[in-house]
Design brief:
It comes from Naematelia encephala. Keywords: Membrane, Transmembrane, Transmembrane helix, Transport. The chain is mostly helical and 501 residues long. The chain has a single domain, classed as MFS general substrate transporter like domains (Growth Hormone, Chain: A, Up-down Bundle). It is built from 19 helices and no strands. The radius of gyration is 23 Å and the shape is globular.
Length: 501
């Protein structure tokens, strides 16, 4: 190694980050805040709108379950769970190929084109005529190798691609200490979409029989039409990168590029994909601990989400009123996501939001499991808020935690994609844990959720301990013998890279 002395460049609010090999342009604090607000106005609303529609689309099946889809297609509870499972298997398979493609294609073009197909296929999903048709549609929607032989082959392809692509964009535009608030913002709007989904499902009950179509078919058709219309908004307004933003001054562009480099996301607008990025991610124990936390949250929450409308009916509500009663639950969950994201960026910590959210969700699951099922509907309804509020609130902290502590950009993309892909793949277990034959106690579903949440609490403590220990170890290393290029190549292993706890 060279003996050339290296001066460590301070990253924004993070004194120990990777030294960027770029020419930096420093902005005053007031100017930087104005710049961040300018980005917020252009990036966050578009991503939030996309995530709202994605969430409504995903939740449409659970709402359709009490609007008559099972009776119309003559499917059993087990067959319904298989349809849900097919959705998440295909969702997960495409995530890694999507990130590879995104290394070569502009985000606005990729997401815009996918959204067109997403909307078309969502609408066509309302025309399924049997269990086989519904299952094939849900599975084929996520096939990574799009073959265009049938339109159903593309929707889950789109939704599997969206969330990693959104996180990729956030990492390109923001400093590490401002990532969680933005991730939390569009994730919170997606959570709030649960309320909108319930209201929409309630509204379409009055369309039952219109044009000879059942209300659940109208639900898919309406969501698909709105999604299709969003494609134009994405193509026109979604910013790709600082380099392409005409609304930024040259100084602002250079400042954002420097921020991107110090955050470990790379100094170049486009970086080709290499197999080493994948290997760096899969060989990092910290990535796998984050993956396990995501698995626990996904399995515990999604199974409950798909069963929630049915659970509310068991509380004594009609099918229509059960849709309305889901609104306050998702509203509370949205508030928890927002509070967790705000606190995480304000304190520059991810562990508290993750740990507290998991504990709240765990308490809710234990209470629902132990409370008598034939009475106390108000108390059980209250703890439904704890389950989704806690688990949904923990998820943005978990995503940001993994993204913040992986560098450079290639490894960061693969780490986050692994986290989301494996987490979604295991949702199959959660969606099949709440089976109709086990109602109303759902011993398997609640028992699995309690076990996984308990393990996630322990793993989050272990991850925080490892990160703290690594920061202390790096503080003892003399960086003067490293060149700037060597430090950048080391990624998050660099002694100048400080892990976020």
């Amino acid at each position: 190694m060279s003996s050339e002395k290296v001066d460590v460049v301070d990253g924004p609010d993070y004194p120990d980050t990777i030294l960027p090999v770029v020419e930096t342009t420093q902005l005053a604090e007031v100017e930087e805040k104005k710049l961040i607000r300018k980005i917020d106005v252009r990036l966050v609303p578009v991503l939030s709108l996309l995530w709202v529609i994605s969430s409504v689309s995903q939740q449409s099946l659970s709402n359709a379950s009490i609007l008559g889809i099972k009776e119309s297609l003559n499917i059993s509870g087990t067959q319904y769970n298989l349809i849900v499972t097919a959705f998440y298997i295909s969702y997960s398979v495409f995530e890694i190929p999507s990130q590879i493609i995104l290394s070569f294609v502009r985000p606005s073009l990729w997401l815009g084109g996918l959204t067109v197909a997403w909307g078309v296929i969502t609408a066509l999903s309302g025309l399924a005529q049997s269990f086989g048709g519904a299952f094939a549609a849900r599975f084929c929607l996520g096939i990574a190798e799009v073959n265009f032989r049938s339109p159903e082959s593309f929707l889950k392809h789109v939704q599997g691609a969206f969330f990693p692509a959104a996180l990729y964009l956030v990492a390109l535009w923001y400093p590490r200490d401002k990532v969680q608030k933005r991730v939390g913002a569009f994730y919170a709007t997606g959570t709030l979409a649960g309320s909108f989904s319930g209201l929409l499902a309630y509204a379409v009950t009055y369309m039952n029989g219109k044009a000879g179509l059942a209300s659940w078919r109208w639900l898919f058709i309406l969501v698909g039409c709105v999604t299709f219309a969003l494609a134009a908004i994405i193509l026109l307004f979604l910013p790709d990168s600082p380099e392409r933003a005409k609304w930024l001054s040259p100084e602002e562009k250079q400042h954002l590029i420097a921020i991107r480099a110090t955050a470990g996301a790379g100094k170049d607008e486009v970086e080709g994909w290499k197999i080493k990025y994948f290997m760096q991610a899969v060989s990092d124990v910290k990535v796998w601990l984050s993956v396990w936390i995501s698995v626990c949250i996904n399995v515990s929450s999604i199974g409950f989400v798909f069963t929630l409308p049915t659970v509310l009916v068991q509380f004594g509500y009609t099918a229509a009123n059960a849709q309305l009663m889901s609104v306050p639950i998702y509203a509370v969950a949205t508030l928890c996501v927002a509070l967790s994201a705000y606190y995480g960026d304000k304190t520059k910590q991810r562990f508290p939001g993750c740990f507290c959210g998991l504990m709240i969700g765990l308490i809710g699951l234990v209470a629902l499991y132990c409370l008598p099922k034939e009475r106390l509907p108000g108390v059980r309804y209250f703890f439904c808020m704890w389950v989704l509020g806690g688990l949904f609130g923990a998820f943005p902290s978990t995503l940001s935690w993994c993204s913040n502590n992986a560098a450079g950009r290639g490894k960061k993309n693969m780490a986050v994609t692994l986290q989301i892909a494996i987490g979604n793949l295991t949702i199959a277990a959660g969606s099949n844990s709440y089976v109709a034959s086990d109602a109303p106690r759902y011993r398997v579903g609640f028992g699995l959720g309690i076990a996984l949440c308990s393990s996630a609490v322990l793993v989050s403590v272990l991850l925080a301990y490892i990160l703290r220990r690594e920061n202390l170890r790096k503080a003892q290393i003399d960086v003067s013998s490293y060149t700037a290029e060597e430090l950048e190549e080391m990624g998050d292993r660099s002694p100048t890279f400080k892990y976020i706890i």
